[in-house]
Amino acid sequence: MIRIIMHGCNGRMGQVISRLVEEDTEATIVAGVDPFDNGKNNYPVFSDIAKCDIEGDVVIDFSNAKAVDGLLAYCVKKQLPVVLCTTGLSKEQLEKVEEASREVAVLRSANMSLGINLLMDLVKKAAKVLADEGFDIEVVEKHHRHKLDAPSGTAIALADSINEEFDGAYHYEFDRTGKRQERDDKEIGFSAVRGGSIVGEHDVLFAGMDEVITLSHTAYSRDIFGKGALAAAKFLYDKKAGRYTMTEVIAQKG
Ligand SMILES: NC(=O)c1ccc[n+]([C@@H]2O[C@H](COP(=O)([O-])OP(=O)(O)OC[C@H]3O[C@@H](n4cnc5c(N)ncnc54)[C@H](O)[C@@H]3O)[C@@H](O)[C@H]2O)c1
């Protein structure tokens, strides 16, 4: 049985994982961490990761960017692999993730779903053909009204996936207000919509002179992220230090 420590256990995603694990025969949650607790989980909950004294094999994290530094320090100290799903990490925090991965196994993905990971590959292929033909690239994303960061980590990851193909030649435009100038050729623009209960929608537009190609993904339920995170935890729990990706998890599942 793989012993999971669920960081952010009482949030929307923490509760999805808790439900999925209950039906799973290979994994169990041995402890949760969340400053908010209503005592309804069937595992002990600690208000802070530093207080967690229960042994686990792997941590799944869906919490808050502010909580990630403490989490990384704990995982390094306890030599615990970590599936890092929280988005909105700062540049300094991304460096800390890199540092931690020299000591323990780390899998960080802005989007744990199979569909989005496939979309990352598809937009890369489309950009290879279309960018040199003068198509402009824009990312439009929509999420529920409670989401804290904008644009979404997934929107940035989709752009990064394209940018990798062009050795980072593109720069990102997050806000055009107040700028009275034409868009640049080597620009990827982002638009973020926030409202209601939208689980997550991402469109990557390739806008040419007389045609537009749009590659889209729509999430209808948070379960897709939960299932991906659980698969990632099962993949990661016995791995040695290093950075791992969802692509590797998907490849292993065949
Ligand atoms: N990678 C993905 O596929 C994916 C998918 C969905 C959400 N997310 C990201 O995961 C994060 C959580 O999403 P959510 O919708 O569950 O949010 P949420 O606000 O519903 O839950 C976050 C939980 O973290 C808890 N928390 C706050 N501080 C903490 C701390 N110091 N230690 C432990 N827990 C703490 C909160 O009390 C809350 O219960 C967000 O950053 C979100 O963008 C990522």
What would you note in describing this structure?
The protein has 254 residues and is α/β, with parallel strands linked by helices. The chain folds into two domains: 2-108 and 222-253, Rossmann fold; 114-219, Dihydrodipicolinate Reductase, domain 2. It starts with a strand and ends with a helix. It has helices at residues 12-22, 68-78, 91-100, 114-130, 153-165, 223-236, 246-253, and strands at residues 2-7, 27-33, 45-46, 58-61, 82-84, 105-108, 136-143, 171-173, 187-194, 200-207, 212-219, 242-244. The strands form two sheets. A seven-stranded parallel beta sheet has the order 3-2-1-4-5-6-12, sandwiched between helices. Bound molecules: nicotinamide-adenine-dinucleotide (NAD).
Find the CATH superfamily of the largest domain.
NAD(P)-binding Rossmann-like Domain
Number of DSSP strands? 12
Low-confidence stretches: none
Number of helices: 7
Could you describe the largest sheet, including whether it forms a barrel?
7 strands, parallel
The sequence of SSEs as H and E is: EHEEEHEHEHEHEEEEHEH
* Biggest sheet strand line-up: 3-2-1-4-5-6-12
Number of domains: 2
Q: Beta-strand level of the residues, as a percent range?
A: 25-35%
Ligand roster: nicotinamide-adenine-dinucleotide
The CATH class label of the largest domain is Alpha Beta
| CATH topology heading of the largest domain | Rossmann fold
Secondary-structure content class: alpha/beta
